Amino acid sequence: MRDGFVKVAAVTPKVRVADVAYNVESCLNSIEKAIVEHDARVVVLPELCITGYTCEDLFWQDELLDMAERGLVAIASRTADVDALILAGLPVRVASKLYNCAAVLYGGELLGLVPKRHIPTYNEFYEGRHFTAGPRSVTEIDFNLSRTVPFGADQLFACDTLPDLVVAVEICEDLWVPDPPSTAHAMAGATLICNMSASPATAGKADYRRALVTNQSARLVCGYAYASSGEGESTTDLVFPGHDLICENGRRLADSGCFADGIAVSEIDVTRLSAERRRLSTFQVAPSPEEARHIVTYFSLDVETPTKLTRFVDPRPFVPASDNRRAERCEEVLSIQAHGLATRLAHTGSDHAVIGISGGLDSTLALLVTVRAFDQLGLDRGGIVAVTMPGFGTTDRTYTNAVELARALGAELREISITAAVRQHFADISHDESNHDVTYENAQARERTQILMDVANQARGMVIGTGDLSELALGWATYNGDQMSMYGVNASVPKTLVRHLVRYCADMYAQTHEEDVADTLYDVLDTPVSPELLPASADGSIGQKTENLVGPYELHDFFLYQVLRYGSSPRKVFRLACYAFGAGASGEKYSRKTILSWLKVFYRRFFAQQFKRSAMPDGPKVGSVALSPRGDLRMPSDASSALWLSELDSLEDEDD
């Protein structure tokens, strides 16, 4: 369970109504399958699985109830050597009343009995005929004349070897009420809610069930394992589909489907859940379970063995995979950018905007956003001053695209070469033009920014920044050069998404038969990413390619997402990146060595370049990850990266 991943299985065993001996064997087979085949560490079985849910008035028979208790003892005894927490459902008699309970087992011991709180007696449900609503408060009861065990709803089961794993239970209808017990459990510290259910199939109910479980996991920032009854339950009036689900913080990780194989397995990242709760200041957890009036029982799991990952880890977390969702995301992001800029223009009374256009992706996106903002405000696009500033590294391709795009969009085009001014500057500071060092590069970037600022003063307008989130994270910008503007519309847009936003716009222009704009945008998309601060190659092509210098942006965007969104450790980021990009597998895109190398670059640059982000201009936040020093990332500019890099150094000699 290294890195906080806990393998959880929700399993539906086949049952026979009231045949406890058969059901015990079936439950044990399901437990064995979950552990042996899937390496599960938490196994959740359905409601009343030891007897079957549909026993009806047979629940009044002591013979059945006696056998159910003996059946639970048998399951506990035969799983004594299993390194897993097991939850099974059965009817339990307490003080002359019958309760629908979840039994929590570990190492052959019964850790607790959790009763169902809400007993339905509507529509097809008539549980109130047999069962009593369980109490919240926990007391000790005698069970099967062998020992006393905690009984009551407000129980937590905490793993002392993995403190972020705290398990709580609710049963079926408990989830469907306005204030589910899981809410109190989560507020008491539970990170994994296990629901043992017997939910019958009706048309459309599966989708509702999925939404209910997924949304509850989101509201509670928790993992949620849902196991429901299936094959073998009585079909006198109802059919049970055996629908099993594993969800985590609003995301469905595993779904058995209905009438399928009856098992859902995935890894719950309890460390991530705890980190997310710490980040959310409004997620109030009691200082201790005792203050929340919960009783805690501890168990121990082996945490040294790594959990094999099977859950989907998105290699491009900023970009939706499906075409429809990606188009929706692009439209939403463009709308946020344009609305933010339009509001700033209106507030400042500006009817002019100044943009440095290079023919690259970022300046192209900034120009497209500015056009949207002007259209939204009803301003003349001629108030957009698009300035192309050819320099030592400008190629014919990027220059042509910049010029043609500005003209096609109706912006005012200005061409101002920086070559003479930069050469004069080199002479002034005694810099050899043949020395293509950082001074050579940054002098060009700062000259361009000076031009844009002065043109904005002339036009009484605003300089629109073009730098994106990925460049800000890596500090791939010249301080007081392209790092500076009056409003940075791309400031929270990662490079991997920039490309899709431009493509989305290109497709939109193509659909409206504005082929001149669309064709230029498609060519921009085919152009390598480059600041063009070094001379072009002998054949006139781009000689300076950004990703050859700082690494692939898809890797850096992945690193950025895992570090900022989830606070993942370097070791965990590395593990997830290797898994997401298939390192070590056939057809791998990046090797472990390559990923580790660029991850070190990411951490070095991320820490070293914070001073640039501390002075970044305003810009709209479009997603969950942003770097604004005014709230999204309050980080000292002189913080050391040694702790993070030392952890990466320790990975050098580890096996795959």
Mean pLDDT: 94
Low-confidence stretches: none
The number of helical segments is 19
Secondary-structure content class: alpha/beta
Question: Any overview of this molecule?
Answer:
It is a single chain. Helices cover 38% and strands 17% of the residues. The chain has helices spanning 20-37, 62-78, 181-187, 205-219, 270-279, 323-348, 361-377, 396-408, 419-429, 438-459, 469-474, 495-511, 515-525, 546-550, 553-566, 570-580, 592-608, 610-614, 642-649, and strands spanning 5-11, 42-44, 85-94, 97-106, 109-115, 139-143, 147-151, 155-159, 166-171, 192-197, 223-228, 245-248, 251-255, 263-269, 295-299, 353-356, 384-388, 412-415, 462-465, 487-488. The protein has a 7-stranded mixed sheet, with helices on one face. Strand 19, helix 11 and strand 20 (487-488) form a beta-alpha-beta unit. It is elongated. The two termini are 17 Å apart.
Summarize this structure briefly:
The chain is 38% helix and 17% strand. It has 656 residues and is α/β, with parallel strands linked by helices. The chain starts with a strand and ends in a 7-residue tail after the last helix.
Helix and strand layout, with pairings?
Blueprint: E1 5-11, H1 20-37, E2 42-44, H2 62-78, E3 85-94, E4 97-106, E5 109-115, E6 139-143, E7 147-151, E8 155-159, E9 166-171, H3 181-187, E10 192-197, H4 205-219, E11 223-228, E12 245-248, E13 251-255, E14 263-269, H5 270-279, E15 295-299, H6 323-348, E16 353-356, H7 361-377, E17 384-388, H8 396-408, E18 412-415, H9 419-429, H10 438-459, E19 462-465, H11 469-474, E20 487-488, H12 495-511, H13 515-525, H14 546-550, H15 553-566, H16 570-580, H17 592-608, H18 610-614, H19 642-649
Parallel strand pairs: 1-2, 2-3, 8-15, 9-10, 10-11, 16-17, 16-19, 17-18, 19-20
Antiparallel strand pairs: 1-14, 3-4, 4-5, 6-7, 8-9, 11-12, 12-13
Helix pairs in contact: 1-2, 6-7, 6-12, 7-12, 8-13, 9-10, 12-13, 15-16, 15-17, 16-17
